Amino acid sequence: MHVLIVEDEYSMVEVLEAYLVRDGHEVSYALNGADGLKQFRVKRPDFIILDLMLPDLSGESVLQEVRREADTPVLILSAKSAEEERVQGMLLGADDYVVKPFSPREVMVRIQAIMRRFQKQEEQSEVWSFGGGRLRIRLNERRVICGGEEVHLTPIEYRLLTAMARHPGWVYERAELLEKVQEDLFFEGYERSIDVHVKNLRKKIEVDPRHPEWVETVFGMGYRFRGERDV
To answer: What's the sign of the alpha-carbon dihedral 9, 12, 18, 19?
Structure first.
């Protein structure tokens, strides 16, 4: 899992990073809100640890921007301890709120709890439907229906599709997609092997794989999912 820490105290970043790396996570960090938003948009982390008292853009503003663009889990770490401040943080869309000073071990446990809830909610969601139902992904059943017919994907193809479909329009570099496959499947591969799996995926879900409707190549960068989620 890729965790982004947005915190202006570098000593605190070091402590959190050490615990996260020990637990097997990849870590990026930003020392101010503007850089935090930039890294969020470029690196697309799986989890965000966010301080509220940042030197430029407030943590509240960062959280609002994140929530406009994604449902990425967010844990607030802040010295703001008043009940009203904690309630406001949760109302803005935080998944949990920990007051400084904090126990790093407690933070790790809270992250695990948030991710369990997040994954369970995702699995229990009914269906991801795109294009008026022409492409449907049943997460809890790990089934994909395209044009009314079920298509049988390999675990790698399924993971690639769901990784991209989670954020339609986002461009994923091959290295990012490789990392997401490796996370779940312990897949040993290299970046260009992603091209082979995308090619096979297109054969199964595209009417014309040479002119794909769903999985688009972004030349010089990687791939993106083009469909918009049905309401």
So the answer is: negative
